[in-house]
Prior knowledge:
Helix content is 28%, strand content 27%. It is globular, with a radius of gyration of 24 Å. β4 and β5 form a beta hairpin. The protein has helices spanning 68-73, 76-103, 127-135, 149-156, 165-172, 179-186, 228-233, and strands at residues 3-7, 11-12, 15-17, 19-20, 23-27, 48-50, 55-56, 58-65, 108-110, 144-148, 192-196, 205-209, 215-220, 238-249, 255-259. It has a 5-stranded mixed beta sheet with strand order 9-15-12-10-11.
Amino acid sequence: LSTTRVIPTTTYKEFWIDMVPGQQTQPDMDKYAMSRVSEFGTFPRVKIGWAESAKTLYKRGVQIDMSYEFQREATLDILSIVIDRIMLSQRTSLFKKAISKAINGTATVKTSTLSTDITAGQHKVNYESWLKWTASFAPYTPSTYYCHINTALKILMMEKPDVDPIQIMAMLSQGPVTQNIQVSRGLWKNVVIFPFTDNTIPENFVLTLDKRYALERVIQAGTDLQETERIITQQFSSVVISISDEVSKIFDDSIFMLELD
């Protein structure tokens, strides 16, 4: 997630920016790019705001019921472990919610269109298609990849050339590495692959995003309850841990899906 927005109510509006005419999911790159102007020229303007329709945050939670004996003998440490395990499940649920939100409405590119060595129906990826895929994200940097475990193995085990072409380019430069080569190397820097063993993401699909600009978490203020010490000292017999939050997209064009067709 790029950021977390805390709101006072259970309704919120998603981020909105000037769009390309006739294309409601693609921000207009020309509008929010800086432009050179004359001395008395007018700088280009970009309009940002909130979407017209509001959305609702839904509450999720769990109730912990404690026996009388547990209340008498429990320590802060053991209850903290229980609550931490519950919050681990909550974070996993939020993670999958973010993936689902990112997948919805995201454009898909097929590997067969990126390499002439791949034919539709093979469900494969090669080094050429992978390089073209990562390079196509400009001006974003693909930092995180999400896919099924079988798809992750195809990526990790794909055949690579004996000598990386990027290294060859660096050797031929005969001096300091050029800026273009540094950019190419940057495509592989700090890349993280998250494999799933369930059906969170279908097999042969790779969700790719620049996590700096892709998604935000919207949470209602005061709904994240983790007051373990107060539970012990006041000897509550039960406590409800609940949270109201949602995930929304920021820049749609920072999220893409690769299909190994």
